[in-house]
Design goal:
heterodimer; A: about 230 residues; Rossmann fold; 4-stranded mixed β-sheet; 12 strands; about 30% helix; about 20% strand; B: about 500 residues; alpha/beta; 6-stranded parallel β-sheet; 24 helices; about 50% helix; binds iron/sulfur cluster
């Protein structure tokens, strides 16, 4: 071990000396105009859409139909999902829904549960999973952001590795701004292993400032927005 | 291909960053890059694009100014509390299961990272964008120890293939255009189908890199904010490679400068908002990744071990002086570079340092010493654009002036604030200014010297070094102002007497 820690800290302490923290200047934040729930929702959707995200407004019960339609359009026949979530029983209907499909589709959706650990399954995850669906924890109107809060049921890579990511968002969970979300839910009390704020599909402008989607993460982000209160 | 590799004919001194040598060659680098038309147009195009993007993200001046003031105060508060916050951060991270390491120098940091990797028999590393790991030249170090280290940010990947280093802190490959990238891929990617379509280029890069994410033993990343209150590492990115590096491999090592710590979660939203808007004009980045633990029992993915390396490398020196301390407020948005007329013309490689542009001119003298970087603070017209756009209100021009002063202080002047202090001092220049000061303090000397200069005007030199390269030499008047006023007054009196 080296003395780096002690050296750095003692230099810093010596440079700053005794400070009266009470005397630090008052910080004030900008007072953003408050928006109605309706305006917030409209803004949320338009932000997402301007970030290349497809937003489908739907009743919860129609989610399976939307998913299977979207998968079909893309010629995708496998969907990775997490078991035992708020929406898992609905998601599981994607399969039935598909089998009863009115236009006599032969191929049914192969619904794969993420019930394995990543160790030893990376190849499978990277090469055999063209799409996934996750729930979300909350959403932020100002920036068109979806907050993912991975759990053992819905691991971190579920929303990251498959090229098409469906995410279910409930309009009830919409917050005006990030700071409001953090404070209302008292995030500082306990944070999970990981939280990710997602505001569109993976993208890059690293080659000649030209925007391209699907740099490493999902190429497509499809939001299934439940708005049961019709705000 | 352009020839933008750093011109480092001079070898770095032992135990010195390789960038010290290339920074010493600043003047040659500038001449080289100014002569490269393609490079200049690549930068001009990119800077215009980024300036526009930023402008459109700040439509409300009132909001912008309130946020800038708020963020300036947040960073200043966190700096005043820095030693305490670092200890708190360490304690929180440790209780969250993340291991914390401290490094005073780049060599120590590289050594720490290499030994963590070796202790796990790691052979392949994927790296998310991290300017601090560029600062330590981690790739070179790991390569020497037989550890493959692959850059995974698209821009960084391009730069690595070209054996270059980033020319911009946010958009590392900004100096290359798509034709140049296509040529580079053709040389380096097996089975590359030639195209200059950017989408297609990115998809080919994606294929190569996904393969690497899938098999890498270790992920290395930077950190944008480290939250002391909760022990959380926050990463800002658009591509998803940062998430890959910090989620897929079994081992995640993050490296960051000690100034990245913030006090509480509440400090994050305003800083994040200014960071992404100042950098690329985005309301928020595609991903904002908050990591607080390694994989916990029952979880199915995520690294089993997470480490954080806290690097000093000159930062405690910046900290030692109240004026220079403001340098540490920087959140690395790159706006000062985008708006700098010098950066736009000479490009990012000419500086020879890891961090180019105004921010580079402020931090590099602390990291590499003033001796190697004495030219950098002078490479500014002091137009003030950088200071005006800086989201945390660092008075950049003032700090550059201060660095110029430090570089010409008498050697050995106390207190010794900076490494290499006084190394830009030239005896002739110093005596000229001494003489100038003496002349201006004595009326007799002043009158005498003015008289001599005006009388000698015919024989004064016409060539004044670089000054007359593009200008004519100034001509001294035939008489001093005093003489002319005297003459005029006496003429007036005469005409009044008539
Ligand atoms: S000095 Fe200011 S403008 Fe420049 S990178 Fe840092 S925060 Fe951004």
């Amino acid at each position: 071990m080296n003395n780096a820690r002690a050296n750095i800290l003692s230099k810093l302490h010596a440079s700053i000396g005794d400070v009266d923290y009470e005397k630090l200047p008052q910080e004030s934040s900008y007072a953003y105009a408050s928006r109605s729930r309706q305006q917030q929702l409209a803004h949320f959707i338009s932000q997402l859409e301007s970030n290349h995200t497809q937003v489908i407004k739907t009743a919860a019960s129609d989610i399976p139909t939307h998913i299977s339609q979207q998968l079909k359009q893309r010629d995708i026949s496998r969907l990775l999902y997490g078991k035992e979530t708020h929406f898992s029983s609905l998601i599981e209907q994607v399969k039935d829904n598909d089998q009863q499909g009115n236009n006599s589709v032969q191929s049914s959706i192969d619904l794969v549960a993420y019930d394995f650990t990543i160790d030893g399954n990376k190849e499978r995850l990277f090469n055999e999973m063209p799409a996934s669906v996750t729930t979300s924890h909350s959403a932020i109107a100002a920036t068109g952001t979806i907050v993912l809060w991975p759990t053992p049921q819905e691991p971190r890579t579920l929303s990251l590795v498959p090229p098409v990511h469906f995410v279910i968002v409930d309009a009830k969970q919409l917050f005006a701004r990030f700071e409001q979300l953090i404070n209302t839910q008292q995030w500082h009390n306990k944070l999970p292993t990981n939280i990710v704020l997602v505001s569109g599909p993976s993208k890059t402008a690293d080659i000649q400032q030209t925007l391209a989607y699907g740099a490493h993460g999902p190429k497509e982000l499809i939001v299934l927005l439940i708005n049961s209160d019709e705000i | 291909m352009n020839n933008t590799t750093p011109a480092s004919q001079t070898q770095p001194l032992e135990d010195e960053s390789k960038y010290a040598a290339s920074a010493r060659n600043f003047r040659q680098n500038v001449a080289r890059d100014l002569a490269n038309d393609e490079l200049r147009s690549n930068f001009r195009g990119a800077m215009d694009y980024l300036i526009d993007k930023r402008q459109s993200a700040f439509s409300d001046q009132d909001e912008l100014e309130t946020l800038r003031r708020q963020c300036q105060l947040i960073k200043q508060r966190c700096l005043v509390k820095l030693p305490l916050l670092l200890e708190q951060l360490e304690q929180q991270l440790t209780s969250n299961g993340i291991k914390v390491h401290w490094a005073e120098t780049i060599t120590q940091a590289n050594e720490i990272i290499a030994s963590i990797i070796e202790s796990k028999q790691g052979k392949t590393v994927v790296k998310g964008k991290s300017m601090v790991s560029e600062e330590t030249a981690l790739n070179d170090h790991l390569e020497q120890r037989d550890i493959e280290c692959l850059e995974s940010d698209m821009g960084e990947y391009i730069v690595q293939l070209a054996h270059e280093h980033p020319s911009h802190i946010i958009m590392p490959a900004i100096h290359q255009n798509k034709r140049q990238v296509a040529d580079l891929f053709a040389k380096n990617i097996e089975g590359f189908e030639h195209t200059t379509d950017v989408d297609a280029l990115i998809q080919q890069g994606r294929k190569v890199l996904r393969e690497k994410f899938c098999h890498a033993d270790v992920g290395v990343s930077g950190v944008n904010f480290a939250v002391a209150q909760t022990g959380t590492l926050c990463l800002v990115e658009n591509e998803g490679n940062g998430r890959m590096c910090t989620t897929v491999p079994d081992l995640h090592i993050a490296i960051t400068g000690i100034e990245k710590v913030v006090e509480s979660l509440n400090d994050v939203p305003p800083l994040l908002s200014l960071l992404t808007r100042s950098a690329t004009g985005q309301a928020i980045s595609t991903y904002f990744n908050m990591i607080s633990h390694p994989r916990q029992t029952g979880e199915k993915d995520g690294p089993k071990e997470v480490h954080l390396v806290l690097l000093d490398n000159g930062r405690s020196q910046m900290y030692s002086d109240p004026e220079l301390r403001q340098t540490l407020q920087c959140i690395r948005c790159g706006a000062c570079m985008n708006h700098c007329p010098v950066y736009t013309r000479i490009g990012g490689h000419a500086y020879g340092t890891v961090y180019p542009g105004p921010i580079g001119k402020m931090v590099s003298p602390h990291m590499l010493g003033l001796e190697a970087t004495t030219n950098l603070p002078t490479a500014s017209s002091l137009c003030g654009a950088c200071g005006e756009v800086c989201p945390v209100k660092i008075p950049i021009p003032k700090i550059l002036l201060r660095l110029r002063e430090e570089s010409v202080k008498p050697v050995g002047d106390i207190p010794l604030i900076m490494k290499g202090q006084g190394s830009g001092r030239k005896p002739i220049e110093a005596s000229v200014w001494k003489a100038w000061a003496a002349v201006h303090q004595s009326p007799t000397l002043y009158a005498l010297s003015m008289w001599a200069v005006t009388r000698a005007r015919a024989i004064l030199p016409q060539k004044l070094g670089p000054w007359t390269q593009a200008r004519t030499a100034p001509k001294v008047a035939a008489q001093t102002l005093h003489e002319r006023v005297k003459l005029r007054n006496s003429q007036k009196q005469e005409s009044g007497n008539e």
